[in-house]
Every structure is written in structure tokens, then in C-alpha cells.
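Q: I have 417 residues here and want to know how they pack in 3D. Can you give me a structure?
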Amino acid sequence: MHEELTALAERLAALGEQPAPPPLDAVNEAMIRNWRQALGDGHDWGEEAPPAMAQVWSMPGLVTRKEPSAADDILQTLNANGFTGVVATNCEHVYDRPVRVGERLTSTARFGTLVGPKQTAMGLGYFVTWYQSWYAGDERVAEMLFRVLKFQPVKRRPKGKPPLPAIGLDSEYFWEGAREGELRIQKCGECGELRHPPGPMCASCHSAKRDHVVASGRGTVYSYVVHHHPPVPGRTPPYVVALVELEEGPRIVGNILGAEPSEVSVGMAVELDFERIDDEVTLPQWRPAGRPAPAPRPVPERVSDWPALEIPLTPTFIISTALGTRDFTPVHHDVALARAQGSKDIFLNILTTMGLVQRYVLENDPDAVLSGMKVRLGAPAYAGDDLVLTGTREGDTVTVRGTVSLGDHVNATVTLR
């Protein structure tokens, strides 16, 4: 397959610049208005289109293209060979002059490079790069470099995270309760016997009827060990793993938080605590009774020449901005399809990210005129998170950083005229 892809990439690169499907619409106020409303762009553009909309005019929407783009053959071949995941990684724009309302653009495209296979955080994949240029008559008005990663979706445990428990039909209710802040203990539906760990049948009366109660969250240390080795991701030894006897009678295993191993003893009173591992798993843990949870670590102040702009990434925002940029890729609209391709949720598309970078620059310098923008994507910006943009201007260059809870989502360099 790799040899086939390499040969195809060489053939496409040899074609050079080719006519691309023309934009379906002339530059128009309605599309600009929809784009601005979705992205929260308040800049006065007059009779010009926002530069970051360059690619929007060529997006096909839900209409099937009659002519392939420069990279379609490569992308389809990768799809057919199991590289079904896709995420944009880089986008670079050059703006030759503003595009005006009423102009009908033409477009050309050329294939760039195919790099891979490479092992990435998303999975094994190939980086595909192509170029697109837009013209008003014979005058070029903008050019774009676009790069995506096509990868084989895998579900991989992030580094530094504790191993996940096995969750089955018998224990699903328990982990759902932990996510909601409840310690649920299984109860026999016939004789009322409480039992833990959960199972399909009561050991006392052999009934398969099951219910549960919510425990008080109080207990005592029945037994414990101090773990030194082997290393466990997300844990710093030594730490205490205890068997806690609940007020209700059953015993449950959990770590003792907020206490040194030398402070723990059999019979010590403990109280329930919860440790959130990720969006799916929260672990019931324990701390000495009456001892408050440690204060959260302070968030380092963001150093920036410009004030931070915080944007809540609601599902509505992510979907509406994808529609506003005419991007109908399912990973930006459909949660189930996003997860099937290796993501945990729908996420911001790169056209929106570029638009938000432009919005941030112009909110801090309304008189600036953009001549180019280079964007490198990092962590996905998932629904339910917040995107925080900060920036520094030095001469005619603005450096913008956008962070989410997973880390840097975008690092961008904006060149001003």
C-alpha cells in the first residue's frame, strides 16, 4: 500500500497547478453575515470579506463535487486502507488583497507532499499537504497551504493516567454513580443483602434480581498495604491502598489520599472522596475523616501583551461555526461519528480556529490589515471545553496562542500589512 501511495503522490505532484472546482457562489453579504454571527466577529468589514474566509468560498457544502481536488485520490486511497480518521494540522494563508462583495472567484489547486507512515498521538498516519489559490479574473487574491493527518483510529490510554477499570453490565451502575458523586452498593432484590464487588447473582439467596443503595461515604480501614513497586502511571509511590469497611457492612478497595503512609492504621476512620481520571471514569477514594481535601493547584497566570479572550466551546458553537464555514465533515457535527473516528466528542474545525485568531487580532487592533496567517494545530478543542486566546505583537507580527484543558490547541503567526 505504501508503494502505491508514493507512486500516486508523485503522479499528482507532477501535474502541477490544476483548475479546481469553482466556488458555488459569488462573494456575498449573506455568507459573510452567517460566518460573522457564528464566530462572534464584530469587526466592520464594509464591502470586503474577512480574509480568513478565503477557503470558505470554495467549500462544497453538502453538494458532491463533480471534479476531484488535488488530494482527493490520496485521501480516498487512505480511507480504503483503514486510515479513516482525519484531523487538520496546519493551514497557512497569504492574502494578496481584500476580496470584495460581488466578486466571483476562480480557484486552482496543486498537490504538495505525502509524508508517512508516522506514529502519532492519534494513531499511525500520513500527513497530506496541498495548495489552493484564488483569483479574481487573472489577479491572485489569496493562497492557502493545507495539511491534514489521515490516521488509523485507535483508542489509546494517555500517558501518565492510571489504568482504567473493566466496566461491564454488572458494574456499569457503580461507575455511573461515581461520575455523579455517589458510592453505589449493590443490593439483592429478594433478600436485601448488600454486596461488593457487584455481581450477577446474590451469594445468599441466589437471586438474580438486583438493586442498589447509596452508601453514606463513611467507613474504617479494615486492612491496607503501602505500594512501592512496580510503578503505576499517574501515581507517585509510596501510597496506601486500603480495604475500607463501610458503615453499611461491605468492604471496598481504594487509595488513601491526603495522608502519609505512616499516618494510616487499621481502624482509622475515613471519608469518601472522588478522583476524576477522565470524562468516563471517576474513582471512589478515601481520606482521613475530618481532613479537608487539599486546595487545588493555582493556575499559572497567562503572560500576554494583549488581554485574554475566553470562548466557551458549547456544542451549539462548534456546530454553528462549522456550518458558518460550510464544513460538513461529520467530526464537527455528529458525536457518534466523531467517536467512531477516534475522537471523544465533536471538535472545532480549523476554518473556525483561523477565524477566531483573526477575530482576536482585530479586537485588539481594529485598524490592522492582515497579509498572512500561519496556524499549527495541537490538542483538539472539544465541545464542553473553553478556548483561551492570548497574543503578543512585535512590529508587524502577532503571535497568538490558544489553549484548552488538554493543552495548546493552536499556535498562530499573523502577519500585518
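Q: Anything worth noting?
A: Residues 350-364 form the longest helix (15 residues). Helices lie at 2-15, 29-39, 72-80, 172-179, 315-324, 335-340, 350-364.
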